[in-house]
Amino acid sequence: MGEEAIEFEVDGSKLSVAISGQGRNILYLSAGLWFVDDSAFAQRLTAHGRVILPIAPGFGPGAVNRRWNSVDDIAYLYLDLIDRLKLSNVALVGASFGGWVAAQMAIKSCASFSSITLIDPVGVKVGDRFARDIADFYGLPDVELRARAYADPSIFEADIKKISDDELGRRVRSREALARYGWSPFMHDPKLLSRVRRICAPTQFIWGAQDRIVTPDYGRAYASHIAGASFTLIDKAGHAPQVEQPQAVLDAFISFADAYR
Amino acid sequence: MRFFHFSEEPYPDAWGAERSSLRITIPNELCDPDVAHRLYHRYIDEWVLADELGYEIMLNEHHSTATCLTSSASLILSILARLTKRARLLVLGVPVGNRPDPIRVAEEMAMIDVISKGRLEFGMIKGVPYDIEPANSNAVSLMPRFWEAHDLIIKAMTTTTGPFNFEGDYFHYRNINIWPRPYQQPRPPIWVSTATPANAVEIGERGHVMASFMGGIAETVKLHKAYAQGYQAAGHGSKVPVDRFAYLAMSGVARNEAEGRRRCDLIADYLRTNAKVADPFNKPPGYFSVEAAMRSARSPNPGAFRTLFTPKGRPVELSTASLDDFIECGIAFAGTPDQVFNQICAFTDGIGGLGNMLLMAQGGHLGPEDTADSMRLFAEEVMPRLRNRQAQAQFFEAA
Question: Please, which pLDDT band fits residue B305 given cuts at 50, 70 and 90?
Fold first, then answer.
């Protein structure tokens, strides 16, 4: 994907961005998980707007400052990106880890966003201290991980022999980069739940009904802290409904984003 | 050459073949505290015997595992500091990159050095992949955190004029001032273990003792060359004294060959069970480089902790290797005193000299009588011959 590719470096970390399509600005923050490839969904979005697709430092082959260790490092970098590209009226879409990044951006300022769509985002702690809100995907054998992540695990190519070196590189790098930013506290910021009240752009949650990485109940608790947030359940989908049911997710996103453009 | 007696303090009763993981996920209801009590005392007795027989002493630590009851090396060290009389006390080591509080490490090590009247050999280690999870340590930043902890601990041990400030990338203190200071001045000797040439260069630059574990001749020479490169680049000289190098191998000795081999074969279960760890805890994210992780994913046995190669290049799978495989690889010395002497000479000559031989003379199910007999025979009939050997190189030269 990409009619235009830009790169810039901040504080020793390189950001690569692909821009494609025309029309309203859609900033898509990918799931970032090694066991989810949602690049086809990002491609689909280009039929509906100008899609800005950043690859966060560490998730691609470019340099990453070894001191970068929190999702805020990425959130501030993406706010820089919005300033550089002079973006406004952005439909912000973030999935899973990308949804966490989107929430960390939105609590700082929603001035550039016309709407916010979060697809099975992580990032908050809702249960008690013994509860494992977010499945420990670093501690799950591959088979169980896929079973928790997908309604139909066969959609993800698990046979390493059948994937390209590029895809293997993506998986290995994202497995490491996710740990860089979210190892402990695991995939959340303990303060985020009390700060999402600051999100003032119209916000929509889309959730896979069969998600067992973060369950729909987690999603409902997350959404309940954002005034007016809507919650849409997608059937026959796990943690990546944009991969398993891309049309349903697209429809939900478009009708929401159209209402608030 | 110095000889160190090493045991991991195993709990082999829980090593049933049906168990796919001896680490992290193995429930501690399988640990009978009474059995563990007896094992601790037995292994401590063996270290005390080592002290009497002329060995130095080595111990390490692992966590959440039936392979090693030493979950805190400092605790066993402090007992040995009081019970032993002359042996050097090597901890190899403290996983300082996994520790939240490096100043606590500096304090404990200084105490042990003082209690033992200056016998501490202080090893700092990166730690194995499956010790990341029990520490909940982030492996992505492990090595920079390790070196920051290393620098801070040495600074704490060698600062004698009152509090200093430290605000690093990972650790923050405003008034560091440890009591007591170490017995050895300015500080105890520092050891670092490694399995990669990149780390070996960094260890060489600092001139610390570098230990490598069971790599065989070819791998060990690679590491020693990398060390020498760093050593020379930092201005320490082109000739590295062999006392900068240590190597860990298994050893089993007896009056007759078959019994010596039987003893070592029991110890070798240590290596055969080493990689029995629930997937995916053997590959924490960031522990291996992206390139190494990609190579491993494409390898025929992606779950393998390590594959050994014989001098002729034959791959040896650790979990199923025979004693002869281990002997051929140069990671086990077994048989009669004569045979073990010859095997060790061939190995140390093959790597260009060695100052510190770390010997795992207890492992797996090897019982106390066999362990003591094997240790005694080695001490009386192998050690003196190796010490008096004229041919042993004193310096390692990379060229």
Answer: low
Domain total in chain A = 1
Instruction: CATH number of the domain at A100, please.
Output: 3.40.50.1820
Q: Does B232 touch chain A (CB under 8 A)?
A: no
Residues of B in contact with A176 (CB under 8 A): 140, 285-286, 290, 293
CA angle B281, B286, B287 (to 5 degrees): 60
**Nearest alpha carbon to residue A20 among A38, A6, A30:** A6
Residue A72, domain extent: 4-259
The pLDDT assigned to B391 comes to: 74
Question: Where in the sequence of chain B do the CATH 3.20.20.30 domains occur?
Answer: 2-193, 197-268+321-390
Residues 110-169 of B with CB under 8 A from A: 133, 136, 138-141, 144, 169
Alpha-carbon gap: B147 to the closest alpha carbon of chain A (Å): 14
Q: Does ipTM exceed 0.90?
A: yes
CATH fold label, B2-193: TIM Barrel (3.20.20)
Is residue A54 within 8 A of residue A114, CB to CB? The reply is no
For residue A77, the distance in angstroms to the closest alpha carbon of chain B comes to 20
- DSSP assignments along A126-152, one per residue: -S-TT---S--TTSS-HHHHHHHH-SS
Pick from B399, B4, B1, B6: nearest CA to B224? B399
Question: What is the per-residue pLDDT for A107?
Answer: 98
pLDDT tens digits, one per residue of A146-184: 999 999 999 999 899 999 999 999 999 999 999 999 999
Q: Minimal Cα–Cα distance from B279 to chain A, Å? A: 6
A136 in contact with B at a CB cutoff of 8 Å? no
Residue B301 has pLDDT above 80, yes or no: no
Give which of A182, A47, A38, A180 is closest to A104, Cα–Cα: A182
- B286: nearest CB among A142, A160, A179: A179
B197-268+321-390 CATH pick, 3.30.420.40, 3.40.50.720, 3.20.20.30, 3.40.190.10:
3.20.20.30
Which of residues 139 through 178 in chain A touch B, CB cutoff 8 A? 139-142, 160, 165, 168-169, 172-173, 175-176, 178
